[in-house]
User: Fold this.
Amino acid sequence: MKVQIILQSKVRNRQTTTWIGEYQKRLANYMPLEIVSWGVLQQKREDRFFNSLNSNDKIVALDERGRNFTTRDLAEYLEELQPVCRVLYLFIGKADGHSDVVLKHAAERWSLSNMTMSYEIALIVLAEQLYRCMTIGIGHPYHK
Assistant:
């Protein structure tokens, strides 16, 4: 399963880019992780993207009101998802949330926290949790 994190804004902080690059390297052996910054989307571009999806793709909108996971629960969920999901698209919204189109197509909503955080912090937390989940699945000592 490939994971693509889609940001509605561009990464501006070089330190964020460094952290994400590190987690992309660490995840390379488990699941390819791609980060895409769409910036402000136009309706036509969103429609084109969502109409091109494969039936084995899954859309998740990160939202403070979404489903909360423990790290172990998320690790188990991702393990179940891997054989049936081609691409897992994880959308991180702007300060005012996601567009109606993203929310309409999202099969699920996940929460990283009950607190609101910047999209760059959310990106780092999400990448780290994906890596931690993969290490749990293989019994690596990273997660103790």
